[in-house]
Fold:
Amino acid sequence: MKIVKSIDCVGTNLDIYDGNIGIMLSGGVDSAILLYYLMKYCLNTIHIYTTGSNLKYRRNSIIAPRVVEKCIQLTGNNNVVHHIHYDESATESSMCIAPQKDIDNSLINIVYDGTTMNPPHDIAINLVATVSKTNSDGTVSKHTATPDMSRSDTGDNIMLYNDDKFYMPWANTNKKGIAKMYKNAWKWGRYYSSIDNNLVDSLLPVTRSCEWDPTCDYYDVIGTVDPGLEHCGECWWCKEREWGFK
Amino acid sequence: MMAVRKSIDCVGTNLDIYDGPVGIMVSGGADSAILLYYLMKHSKDKIHIFSLGNNDKRRVNISVATQVVEKCIQLTGNTNIEHHINYCETQTGDSLYVMPKQFTEEKRVKIVYSGLTANPPKEVLNTFKLATLEHGDRDPNAERDVLSLDDTKYSPWTNIDKKIIASMYKEEKLLEKLFTITRSCEYDPTHHYFRDDVKDPGHGNCGECWWCEEREWAFPTVWAFDHNTCQTVPSRDYNENS
Structure:
């Protein structure tokens, strides 16, 4: 596949592929900044895919269009089509179904995936605690809520998968690297000239990284209340965001 | 001929539920919102929802349409849907139908539902501050075919006006749950009338444009306009159960 240009995103390389492209947009900080860069530099139609999870009340299907709207305002590019699908739990595989179908139908050439590298392992495993709960029968159960920790934190994650049709440019960049993009995009590189591109004040507030899960006992045990469209501040992903941007 | 799976009586107006997958154009307004609700309630097949945001009006309807979709999911429990949002500079009749047309041509949907209604009677229109540009396909005195474009577009509300739409909301007890989050306003910041005299309603209703007046005419017992928030709210004397 032809790369039409490569962008230096505050130290992380981003390849812009030729033709119509897709991007999986959750509404979190990682995919939001990726969408921003693509809308700034891609001249072809960008198909945006969001999967609303019924288990989590489909909140990202409300947040993601707001991210798209903000990126239109920031870049002036409205050559985008946003497809919102729904699924019971929005797993990693179910989120790929719709973009994969459009690849198979030659509507798009490649799909961008904003997944980042985990924080260093000793930090990542301590972002949320393991808590104990005494059950009604006297037994004690332990609860936590952490993501897949199998991904390397040393920068050797693959960037292309699914027959090289899915591209993860942030696979070896953690949230601190993403935070640098938000803080410094406007002054990094000769293409950035406008103070309006300080994305900490414009794009970041629209995003939502929270993965509060009403079906997970951990949140009941620690007493987290439903955050609605805000951040719960207690889940692993809220803590990772806090670590990245502090 | 398309197969009709069942027909619904919507307060005296017939709504055919076609074999799917089907499409529907959702603007975020009251007419398309109630049509989406009925469709999600009664269709077993995949529903493709099409919304178009236009730059002239700052794409405000997109955030409204996504909330209408979310509310209809909550009300019906149906998530067998896909919402497709695209964007243009200036919305026209043609640009609205670009994506639905593409889906019908590619056989991804068999028919596309449109929530277009007829205008209010002429004597009512004469009381509105602004003239409408929509006399043609919304003439209240003309009888139109509900099917058009080689039977690929279905407009079940084409011969009824917004007062009938209001009675559907009342019948389904959706005035507070669904109607209040819809937005019919077509406030246009590029038009001198609005720019000079009308407060920017943001995501609310301006209360001054033709479409707000039509909405107020149709929903007088429930429609109240809060000038501080520019939101449509139930009026003080409104009781959904009355």
Notes: The helical segments of chain B are 30-42, 60-76, 93-96, 98-105, 122-125, 162-171, 192-197, 210-218. Chain B touches chain A at residues 53, 55, 59, 62-63, 66-67, 69-70, 73, 79-89, 99 (CB under 8 Å).
